[in-house]
């Protein structure tokens, strides 16, 4: 540790000068303004030009699949692949077990919790969805 604060203050002063220089450059370029209250204001962010590729891809997918509910798609995939049995390492004991697993998959893929997903599916209890969550 230095005997005086001078080396530390020099380094801070250099950082401050670099920051003020960057601020001045942004102000000159019109990216930052200083309001009457003395606060810094950033200019509005401009959107990038749109790329048609995502829209084309979306349209191609919808033309191939058509309209379908996600629940129907999950059950169809499970019927073909048997992923719910693999994930549980056994056959389902009743109809609620795979539905709970589907609901847990939806919860994992979204920002919803078990209670919110269970509220969307009338026969499910949040505890069943929580049990199916990893």
In short:
This protein is mainly α.
Overview of this protein structure:
The chain is mainly α and 134 residues long. The chain folds into two domains: 6-42; 64-132, no CATH class. Helix content is 61%, strand content 4%. It contains seven helices and two strands; from the N terminus they run αββαααααα. The protein has helices at 6-28, 53-65, 70-81, 83-88, 96-109, 114-120, 126-132, and strands at 32-34, 40-42. The protein has a two-stranded antiparallel ribbon.
Low-confidence stretches: none
Largest sheet: 2 strands, antiparallel
Overall mean confidence score, pLDDT: 85
Tally of distinct domains:
2
Query: Could you say which structural class the secondary elements and strand pairing correspond to?
Result: mainly alpha
Rg, rounded, reads 28 Å
The first-to-last residue Cα distance is 49 Å
The secondary-structure element order is: HEEHHHHHH
Query: What's the tally of helices?
Result: 7
Strand residue content: under 5%
| Helical fraction | 55-70%
- As laid out across the biggest beta sheet, the strand order is 1-2
Shape field: elongated
What's the count of strands? Answer: 2
């Amino acid at each position: 540790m230095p005997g005086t604060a001078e080396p530390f203050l020099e380094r801070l002063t250099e950082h401050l000068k670099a920051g003020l220089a960057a601020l001045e450059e942004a102000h000159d370029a019109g990216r930052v303004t200083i309001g009457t209250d003395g606060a810094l204001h950033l200019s509005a962010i401009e959107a990038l030009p749109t790329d048609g590729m995502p829209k084309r891809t979306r349209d191609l997918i919808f033309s191939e699949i058509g309209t379908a509910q996600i629940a129907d798609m999950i059950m169809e995939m499970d019927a073909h692949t048997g992923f719910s049995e693999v994930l549980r390492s056994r056959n389902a004991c009743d109809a609620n077990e795979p539905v709970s697993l589907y609901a847990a998959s939806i919860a994992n893929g979204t920002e919803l919790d078990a209670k919110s997903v269970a509220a969307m599916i009338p026969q499910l209890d949040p505890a069943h969805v929580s049990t199916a969550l990893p």
